[in-house]
Write a structure and sequence with these properties.
This is Histidine phosphatase family protein. The protein has 215 residues and is α/β, with parallel strands linked by helices. It contains four helices and six strands; from the N terminus they run βαβαβαβαββ. It has one domain (3-86, 121-202): Phosphoglycerate mutase-like (Rossmann fold). Helices cover 26% and strands 18% of the residues. It has a six-stranded mixed β-sheet with strand order 3-2-4-1-5-6, sandwiched between helices. It is globular and about 55 Å long.
Amino acid sequence: MSTTVIHLVRHGEVHNPEKILYGRLPGYRLSERGQKMAQLAADHLAPRDVRAVWASPLLRAQQTAAPIAAVHGLPVAQDVRLIESGNHFEGQRMGHGEARFSDPRNWRWFANPFRPSWGEPYRDQAARVISAVQSARSEVEGHEAVLVLHQLPIWVTRLSAEGKPLFHDPRRRQCRLCSVTSLRFVGPHLAGIDYAEPAAELYMGAVDATGGKLA
């Protein structure tokens, strides 16, 4: 049976000086550092047998996908199944103002962290990304494809693939900016998962999605 590899690439650093939980909001672009991260991811994947590139419709994912596709002479196709997770607090600063946990009006949104109650269920995120992965595997069978998307959907997809509970500590996600989580299939069966951080040299001082610095 043939071997097929699907690379799940997280987007690079986003320009977000207000430290907003931007979620699915349009217009959030890569920072200058984020653009450099995207190029490092492209360089990392340049030697690979990539035959197709798909990305979330959000700008930051499209910008990250562009140099990856360019080195292989490919277009970037959109796939809405790769979009960021939905979140009730989108557009707000986490821990501030209307998004404060200490505000009793918000307690209902934190009622069930296992689902989670504040946003799109983990199970739903994993299901849609797995569907996109299977579509890509079928289309490029025997070769490789790149899917550019977002941290939480990548991480719950990996947990699902490994047969682990989807509830987790967000601080322990192995899915940093412009990281590459590679799913290796032999025929239709998942044979292994690899992980790389081609943009690690740029992590010092970089700001993650929550507004916190990586290092």
